[in-house]
UniProtKB/TrEMBL annotation:
The gene is ald. The lineage of its organism: Bacteria, Pseudomonadati, Bacteroidota, Flavobacteriia, Flavobacteriales. Coiled coil: none annotated. GO terms for molecular function: alanine dehydrogenase activity. It comes from Mariniflexile ostreae. Gene3D superfamilies: NAD(P)-binding Rossmann-like Domain. Residues 149-297 form the Alanine dehydrogenase/pyridine nucleotide transhydrogenase NAD(H)-binding domain. The keyword Cytoplasm does not apply. Keywords: NAD, Oxidoreductase. Residues 4-137 form the Alanine dehydrogenase/pyridine nucleotide transhydrogenase N-terminal domain. This is Alanine dehydrogenase. NCBIfam families: alaDH (TIGR00518). SUPFAM superfamilies: Formate/glycerate dehydrogenase catalytic domain-like, NAD(P)-binding Rossmann-fold domains.
Amino acid sequence: MKIGVPGEIKNHENRVGITPSGVFELVKRNHTVYVQKDAGFKSGFFDDDYSDVGAIILDTIEEVYEAATMIVKVKEPIEKEYELIKPHHLLFTFFHFASSRTLTEAMLRSGSVCIAYETVEEEDGSLPLLIPMSEVAGRMSIQEGAKCLEKPVKGRGILLGGVPGVPPGKVLVLGGGVVGVQAAKMAAGLGAIVTIMDIDMKQLRYISDIMPKNVTTELSSEYNIRKHIKHTDLIIGGVLIKGAKAPKLITKDMLKDMRPGTVMVDVAVDQGGCFETTKATTHENPTYIIDDVVHYCVANMPGAVPYTSTLALTNVTLPYIVKIADAGWKKACEQDKRLAKGLNIVNGAIVYKEIAETFNLDFKTLNDL
């Protein structure tokens, strides 16, 4: 198969879709890999690293799309790429369709096959290709949130860990999944007082068992959220509903109950965000303020630590890339039901129910095509 790895052109997206190690595995299996010039540079991987293991370096993104059948990326295509995507293309990347009708309709028009990292699903319901980026984003949410609490960013002027004689800051984590657990772990490590909320009591029991004493668990409800936000310094939104928009757990009217300089970090922004006041931001301009509350809503947080993120992502995506390259997407999906769950759009039809429901569009099964 001819596999293309274009450079990412989303604002401050520094990751790359595959490492030289991944290219080595594909070339070893007699696949042809085209990598755009300098695609891996910001992640710490150079053109010579790719060419030394058999990749063909192409100068432009247009050349990569033209040469390849399968496109391996990190983030969803942006408007500049739409016209490059043709019916013969298979795209394997993060899409988060539920957050963008424009993207969904563009991919439907393209006639391509879209397999989304974030909906590849294990039998137990876990999302193996989303987990490493959720781990990175969860940990980064505390790192960035702590920075936003500083006065120059209009935060409350709070040091999360406090100092002897001064109490530490308070952190509220919404969601007890991968993002929430990693965020709580980082915040606890800094010495903050942490409350983590979820609606799954089984998960809360697990979290309670593994976390240190400065982390407490509480059942998530509007009443409990409203109670906590009055005294919380940093709020982390880490709620995910597979393939669908995140629920709005913090509404605009709640902001008036927060203290000026409170910081909210919405890790769910790729899925529309779990704060009503969320709007996607970039690493270049990461924050905005509404009602004296600082919002950090960067849609590609792991892009700020591209070396770590690229290695972590390729660790989990490469086995699936190899399967698709070896067998073609149809056979690979027939053989691996986890991968089949990743099918979102196929040749102009939505085949993932939650996306169709989000935009009130037609849904088809693979048998209908």
